[in-house]
Amino acid sequence: MDLAAVVVYEILYTVAFLTLISAGLAIVFGMMRVINLAHGEFVLLGGYAAIVSHNTLGIDIFVSMLIVSPLVVAAFGVIAERLIIRFLYGRLINTMLATWGLSLAMIGGFTLIFGTTTTSIKAPFGGFEVGEFSLSGYNIFIIASAVGVILLIFGVLKFTRAGLIARGAMQDAGVASSFGYDTSKVYMVTFAAGSALTGLAGGVLAPLVGIGPTAGSLYIAKAFITVISGGASVVSGLIASSGFFGFVSQFVTFVTNSVVGEIGLLVAAVILLRLLPTGISGRFFRNRL
Amino acid sequence: MTARQTLTAVIVAAIVMFVLPVFFDVLNLTTFAAYALLALSLGFVWGYGGILCFGQTAFYGLGAYVYAMTAINTGEAWSGVFLAIVIPAAFAAVLGAMMFYGRLSDVYLAVVTLVVSLILFRFMNTTAGEQYIIGKARMGGYNGIPGYPTLHIPGDPEAYIYDENLYYFTFIVLVLCYLLTRWLLGSPFGRILVGLRENEQRIELLGYDVRARKTAAFAFGGALAGLAGCLYANAAEIVTPELFGLGLAAEIIIWVIVGGAGTLIGPMIGAAVLGYLKFVLGLRAIKEIFGKDNPLEAPLVFGTILILFILFLPRGVAPTVQGWLSRAPLGRGGPARGGQRRRTRTERARPNA
After folding, report:
1. Residue B350 confidence (pLDDT) above 50
2. Residues of B with CB under 8 A from a CB of A
3. Of A13, A73, A67, A41, which Cα lies nearest the Cα of A261?
4. Which residue range is the domain that position B58 belongs to?
5. B353 lies in a domain?
6. Can you give the pLDDT at residue B329?
7. A101 has a pLDDT exceeding 50
8. What domains can be seen in chain A, in order of their start residue?
C-alpha cells in the first residue's frame, strides 16, 4: 500500500515536471506555431536567475523563483522575439533552426558568465515519510505549481479579454488586425508570456536539478516531445501528453531503472507520433483549448 | 551529369586533394573529409529529398559503432566497412518506412529523428557494464570503444592505411560518393525526388509512390552517413556516444545551412570550413563541445552563425553564389521572367546545377 502511494506520488511528480517544463513551449507552439529550440536554455536562464537572485542578492527564495525568474526570462524572450523570431513567423523550419542557433549561443553565453560548474539552491522544504519510504516534500510544491500553471493558462485564455484577443490573432491575424489590434504586439506579448512560464519552470526546478550551461538539452527533448505529441490545443494537449508520458516514464522506471525509463519515454513518443501524426489533441480535442 | 562534367569534377577534386595537405594537417583533413561526407548525406536527404532530418547523427554514430565492433570481432576492417554501410542504411530504411508510411512531415519528422538519435545517445552512454558485450567487443558506455583495427590493404590485416594514405583514401571515397549522389540525382529517381520536394501532392497525383521513394532516399542518406561514421572512426581511432549527441546534430545542420541546402557541394564545403573553424576555436574533438573544462566559445560562435544565416542568407552560400553566376550574361536559360529569386529556385531544382 505504501509502495503504491509512493509510485502514484512519483508519477504525479513526473507529470507535473513535464507540464512545467512544457507549458511555455506549448503556448508558443500551440498559439503561434513557433517551435523554440532554445527552450531548454530558457529554462536554465530561469534557474540561473533564481540562483543569482537568492544566493547572491539575498532575495527571498519564493520571490526569486516565482517572480524574478519569470520576469528575467520574459524580458529575454521579448528581446529574442524582437531581434530574431518576429522575422520568421510562418516559417516553422526556419524558426526552429534560428532558435537552435540561439540555444547554442546561450550555452556559450552561460559558460562565459557562470563557468562550466553546476550550481543549485537549497530546497525550502524537508522530506516526509510514508511508511518505510521517505519522500521529498518539495515535490508537492512542484505538483502544486504545475496545477497552478495549467489553471492560469486556461483562465487567461478562456476568461480574459487579453486571452480572447490572443486567440483571435492566432486564429486569423488579418481579421484581428482589421479590428484594430496590433498583431505584432500580440505575438510579442504571447511569446513573453510563454517565456515567463518557462522561466517559472526553471525557477521552481532549480532546487531539484543541477543548473549548468549544457543541462538545457535535458529539458528540450522532453518538452519538445510533450508539446508535439500534445498537438495544437494548448491546455488539453499539454495535460494529455504530460499525463501519458509521465505515466509511461515512471512506470518503466519503476519496473526497470531510470535510464530505461527515459528511453521508454522517448520510444513511447516515437510510437505515439506514428499512430497520431498530429498529436493527441489533433485527434481527440480538436479546436478546443 | 555529362561525362565532361564528371571529368571536370574529378580533376578539380584531385587538385584540391593534393593541394590541401600543403597547408593543413592530414589528420584534420581526414576528419573534415568524413564530416563532408556526413554533410553530403544530409544535403542529399534535406536539400533534395526535402526530408528535414535532425538526427542524421544516428546513422553516423551507428556507422562508427558498427565498424568498431565488427573490426574488433573479425580482426580486420573491410567487413566492418561493409556493415557500417549496410546496417545504418537498413536502420534508416526501417525508420524511414515507419515515418513516411505514417505520413509524418515537417516538425514531426524532425522530432522523431532527433528523438531516435537521443535514444541511441542515452543507450550508448549506459552500456558500460559487463552485459553489453557483442562478441569480443565491449561497448564501453560513456568511454566508448578504443583500440579496434583500422583500415588496411584488403587481404593483409597488418598493412594499415594511415596518415596521408588514410587521408587520400577518405578523400577519394568522398569524391566517389559525391559522384554517385550526383548520378543518382540525374537519374529518373533523383528527378522524381526533387519534384517531390517541390510539390509532393503533384508527384503523387502523377502516380508515383511517394512513400517508397522517400524511404529509399532516406536509406541512401543513412548509408552515406554510416560510411562517414566509419571513416571518422578510422581517423579518430575511438568511438564515443558523443557521436550521437545533440551538439553534433546541431553542427551538421549548420554545415548544410551555411553551405546551402539544395546543392551538394555547398554542405561539403560548409562542413570542411566550419570543421576547420571549430578546430581553430580550439575545439578539435566533438566531445569537447559540451565538455567540462574549456572556454566553450565555439557554441556561441556557431549559434550566432546559424542565427545570422537563417535571418540574412537562409539559402546558404553556394546557391547564392550560383545565383550570381547564373545572372552573368552567358548563363544558361537567359533572363527569367520571375526575377532573381524565381530563377535561383529553378536552378536549385536542377540536380546538376
Report:
1. no
2. 52, 98-99, 102-104, 106-108, 110-112, 114-116, 118-119, 122-123, 126, 246, 250, 253-254, 257, 290, 292-307, 310-311, 314
3. A13
4. 3-247
5. no
6. 53
7. yes
8. 2-283 (1.10.3470)
